[in-house]
Write a structure and sequence with these properties.
The chain is mostly helical. Helix content is 64%, strand content 0%. Helix 5 crosses helix 6.
Amino acid sequence: MAINQYGAEARAYWRRWLPRRYAALPDPIAFFTALGEQVESQIGDLWDRYVVADTAPADENHEGRVSRLAQLKARAEHEVLDETVRLDPEPEAGLDHEDDGLESDEEYEARMAHLRQHTEWVSTTADALLDDNLRLSDLDDQQLRHVLDYMTPSFLRLFGTSVEDQRARGRDL
C-alpha cells in the first residue's frame, strides 16, 4: 500500500524536524504508511464527532454547508496532526537550515487558489447530484471520494446507497 497524504506529510516533517528519530526507523515506508492510515482514521473519527456536535445555521445554503464541513475537517486535521505528527523538533534541527520548510507567498497563494477551485467543484458537483443533473455513475472513483471527503459518507444515503454498496459494485472508495 502507498503512503497517503498524511503519511507523506509526516515523513517530510520527521525528515526535517526529527532527523534522529527518522534515521532510526528500520523501515520508513512501512512506518509512514501505517502512521498515515492511523492519522486518517483519527481525523475521520474526530471530524465525525465535530459534525454530530455542530449545529447548522437555519439559513445555511449548500455552499455554506460545504464550507462549514471543510472547516470542521481542517480543525480535526490540525488537532490530530499536532498530536501525532508535528512533534517537538529535535535540537539539532535548528532554523539555520537553508530550506526552512516554509512555502513562499506564491506557493501559498497557488495552494489557496487550488483549494478554492476544488471547494467550488465539490459544491457544484454535490448540487448537480442533488438536483438530479448528475448521477453517481457519472463520477469516477476519485471524484466521488472528493465529494465524500467534504459531504461525509452518509451523503450517499440520499441516493439510496452507501460506501459499502458502492464498493460491492466495484467502486474504489
